[in-house]
TrEMBL record:
EC numbers: 3.1.2.4
Family indicated by similarity: Belongs to the enoyl-CoA hydratase/isomerase family.
Protein name: 3-hydroxyisobutyryl-CoA hydrolase
GO terms classed as biological process: L-valine catabolic process
UniProt feature coiled coil, ranges: none
First-tier enzyme category under EC: hydrolase
Keywords: Hydrolase
Gene behind the chain: LOC111472738
Provenance organism: Cucurbita maxima
Length: 383
């Protein structure tokens, strides 16, 4: 479980190597699949903040130790805090995490993330906002929050709606798992490099005395290959995804999918329907609203809104699905959550709207993001 103490940062959870003008950061909780703890977020925030003004740092490489890049945030620690009536501790964790996401999205120093393994939830937050995302044959990406009674956060409402068509809605609502070829095709990854070549790539990046994205991209290109998109890939069903997931409500999306299922026998359509029906109805509705809002907002606005939503989720005034999801999937592991409200039709527009409103608590305030100066063109485009 994460420590909630902001002092005495444990550096071992993030290993730091200095190689000329490059810094190699290794997420180091392999037994927990590098799940992002409060300690890890604090350390990364400290490091990236210092790199911004350090002329000796021109490039940052982020990777994970073991078989995962990062399997998400330390959700069980947040759930434990809520059960102890300490939701503000969870809010403190999310505030730091979302500030880190913003720093990465607007960083003046290029970040290369080596996504060699599982990349989920919070792991996407420390990688997808960076300039370069290198997938391998071991990469698996997912935003599985709706099955946990949460919603795709860490800035997902910014990057998901910027994927082609309505693929972001599909990924965010269903928690679908994507392989490296799908990540590259939809834009979540910028390159594909076989895992056996990552060490050579890292060495080449460290030799490059530059912050120039074009030069860094050219170096990665030398090691890159084009993975084959599987015939059964969801990305090959963009026509159906766009037709169904462009609908206005979750009920409309499900109805459109069920209509498609009647037209042709397709296991993918049936499994997509099953995934939606297993997820928290409240989570599905607030997630769709969040992604739709994100289409018209910048990265900072998305994170500020997601912070409000996360605080409402933790307070559990509208629904306690997050605690129930954690119980069913992470604690008891019976994989049989009892959602409340139990059906989409019972989740009203007024209930959904509550998640996007300010918290009615005198001690609470909106997420305040740091001012950003001397931004690169790619960072400015996110604001």
């Amino acid at each position: 479980m994460a420590s909630w103490n902001s002092t005495g940062i444990d550096e071992d959870q993030v290993l730091v190597e200095e190689k000329r003008f490059a810094r190699i950061l290794t997420l180091n909780r392999p037994k927990q699949l590098n799940a992002i703890s409060f300690t890890m977020v604090s350390r990364l925030l400290e490091l990236f903040s210092s790199y911004e003004t350090d002329p000796c740092v021109k490039l940052v490489v982020v990777k994970g130790k073991g078989r995962a890049f990062c399997a998400g945030g330390d959700v069980s620690a947040v759930a434990h805090a809520i059960k102890e009536s300490e939701w503000r501790k969870g809010a403190h964790f999310f505030r730091k995490q979302y500030t880190l996401n913003y720093l990465l999205a607007t960083s003046s120093k290029p970040q290369v993330s080596l996504l060699n393994g599982i990349v989920m939830g919070g792991g996407a937050g420390v990688s997808i906002h960076g300039r370069f995302r290198v997938a391998t044959e071991k990469s698996i990406f997912a935003m599985p929050e709706t099955s946990l009674g949460h919603f795709p956060d860490v800035g997902a409402s910014y990057y998901l709606p910027r994927l082609r068509g309505f693929f972001g809605e599909y990924v965010g609502l269903t928690g679908a798992r994507l392989d490296a070829a799908e990540m590259l095709a939809c834009g979540l990854a910028t390159h594909f490099v076989p895992s056996e070549r990552l060490t050579q790539l890292e060495e080449a990046l460290c030799r490059a005395d530059t912050s120039q994205p074009s030069i860094i991209s050219a170096i990665i290109d030398k090691f890159s290959q084009t993975p084959i998109l599987h015939e059964q890939s969801a990305y090959n069903r963009l026509d159906v995804i766009d037709k169904c997931f462009s609908r206005r409500t979750v009920e409309d999306i499900l109805a459109a999918l069920e209509e498609e299922a009647l037209k042709k026998k397709d296991n993918w359509i049936n499994s997509t329907i099953r995934d939606l029906k297993k997820a928290s109805p409240t989570s599905l509705k607030i997630s769709l609203r969040s992604i739709r809002k994100g289409r018209l907002q910048d990265a900072g606005q998305c994170l500020i809104r997601e912070y409000r939503m996360a605080c409402h989720v933790m307070r559990g005034e509208v629904s306690e699905d997050f605690i129930e999801g954690c119980r069913a999937l992470l604690l008891d592991k019976d994989r049989n959550p009892k959602w409340e409200p139990s059906k989409l039709g019972l989740v009203t527009d007024a209930m959904v709207e509550r998640y996007f409103s300010r918290i009615e608590d005198e001690e609470w305030e909106d997420l305040k993001l740091p001012a950003r100066l001397n931004l690169s063109a790619s960072a400015t485009s996110k604001l």
